[in-house]
Amino acid sequence: MTMKSFPVLNDASLEDAVEKLLHWSLVHGLVMYPTGFKSFNTNAAPVTLFPTPFPRDGLNAALNVQTLFNELYAKVATDEEWLSLIMDELIDVDKEFTGKLWQTHKRAKEIGISQPLSLSLVRSDYMLDENTGKIKQIEYNAISVSFGGLSPKVSDLHRYLNHAGAYDSRGSQKYYEDGELATTEASDKLVEGFNDAVKLYNGRADNNTTIVLVVVQENERNVFDQRHLEYALLNNHGIKSQRATLSEVSNVTRIDSESKKIYYIPTGDEISVIYYRTGYSPSDYSSEADWETRLQLETSKAIKCPTLLSQLSGAKKIQQLLTDRELVSKYISKSNIDTLFSKFVDIWPLDNSELGKKAKKLAFECPEKFVLKPQREGGGNNIYKEDIPGFLSKLPEDKWNAYILMDLISPSTHKNTVIREDKLYTEDVVSELGIFGTIIWDSGTGEIKSNKTADYLLRSKFSSSNEGGVAAGFGCVDSLYLY
Ligand code: ADP
Ligand code: MG
Ligand code: MG
User: Which of 9, 76, 219, 285 has CB 3.0 to 4.6 Å from 14, enough for a Cys bridge?
Assistant: First the structure.
């Protein structure tokens, strides 16, 4: 298939298209609070004006491998013996966060973990490698994955602009064929994961007797993304949800000391699922009391999305270790290993192993080939290319193992126009495809109860910027023009 070139609009048409885009976004909830917001004043979420080209077989390859990744990470999260070996090393170099998560899990275990089922809503992120034309994995997110709510809105927006003639300077023609614009039903599919979990918790098909507790950050800008999921949960499945920050949780919930069932005090509803949209970054815990709350929730009967173990299984260090075939073959059948490994680039440890010694040399000899990543989530934490040697030099060598060194992927670039906080930027962008998944398993027996792919997200950023996070201010939400 040949790729259509980027639509060219004259000034008047561009102005009209942008107005159409902003109005549509506000009407349909494709919105985000602006930086430093103080009231209900909101703004259109940062988006691209046009869908960005992406090969159809790349999207399919990423969708097709998702349930395998779901399974792999669920199995890792269940293999506590192996995880504890890794964590014992990691907490030496990252006491303040990874160490705290691990310690909280161990304390929860001492108290007693009363819910064997785990729910994870995950997202596996990829870039299309310019050299091979294949998708390569950037990272695997195991907690608080975002944009499942807004992503379907962007593909709807681009479809609307196409139908409204906004991509044609005469304002009359569709520019894309309908089949060329990918559709994503990520929010409907993600909430199926909650519905499956609530039903399993209730032990019967009627699912509207218990509720989902959404644990959120204070001053969250991306709150509407979360709200779309909550609305879909209520509309599609009749399941109610309530929101609370980590610091509010202890005031609005109570745990029955016998049954360990947890209740939402204001309504008296029993909580069957606890969904974290916080807790992935040290700053999410404002005090020791927030860590205590996380501990209490972990020991409650509600199904956690995710558990502390699942969250830890998504550490960048684990992603690095999982580039070892022998290790992965412990979890995944031999016939599927090649499919998984075709998505990987090299990721290196910075320890005293042979591989680690080689990586330490490479980091100084050709830093331009690498990105250095700590055990953190949410964007803005990595060290890129030429900054790596200086960064490492300032750090005692026995702390380097808190980081992994990853081969940089060179993604294809495309010209697009980005609209963020009412400003227009026409530049080369690079895109990151995120595939959502949901999985529920029994962490005692390892039995997988449900394992699903939940469609996709495309984020784009200026090719001149290293980072990609949208809420962190580096990128925007996009959709796919398939070729
Ligand atoms: P986080 O968990 O903070 O989102 P990521 O691993 O996703 O961390 O890295 C943040 C951003 O850095 C990505 O969105 C991507 O734009 C860029 N990035 C990360 N790894 C690579 C890589 N191997 N090649 C190219 N870009 C990368
Ligand atoms: Mg991440
Ligand atoms: Mg990321």
Answer: 9
